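Hey L., structure's done. Input below.
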Amino acid sequence: MGPKASAKPYVKAFRSKYDSVWKGALIALSKYPLEKNDKSSGEILTTTIENDQVFKPYNRTLRSNEHYKLIINLEKRKLKGQNIVIVKIEKKPTLKGDFMNDDRELESDGIEESVLLYRISREVSIDKAVEKIYK
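Output:
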């Protein structure tokens, strides 16, 4: 039995400075091996993560031939005159093929993406609180 389907990316809007959200994303992803980290384009891409190398789901055991990449995009926008930052996280899980079968794309259950958005949110909140103290 594979993971439950949830093909859409996970998205959250932050009413905060871009630099604060970027920093929060990097802190939340600090244990992940990164392939790309481009602040100007707002892109963060992990290298291929094998099995439960970084994140171990509580609801199932990963197969030994399962791996994935995470794609994180940050985008500056304006909403009702306020600056906001949209964070989008996509997980691309794959089941490695063998000599007879090709790799097979899987769908994420969304747990890791939700946890990362929560961690980013927490870091942004901490950054705002510290900023208030030292103003």
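Residues 1-6 have pLDDT under 50 and may be disordered. Helices lie at 18-28, 111-133.

-- N.
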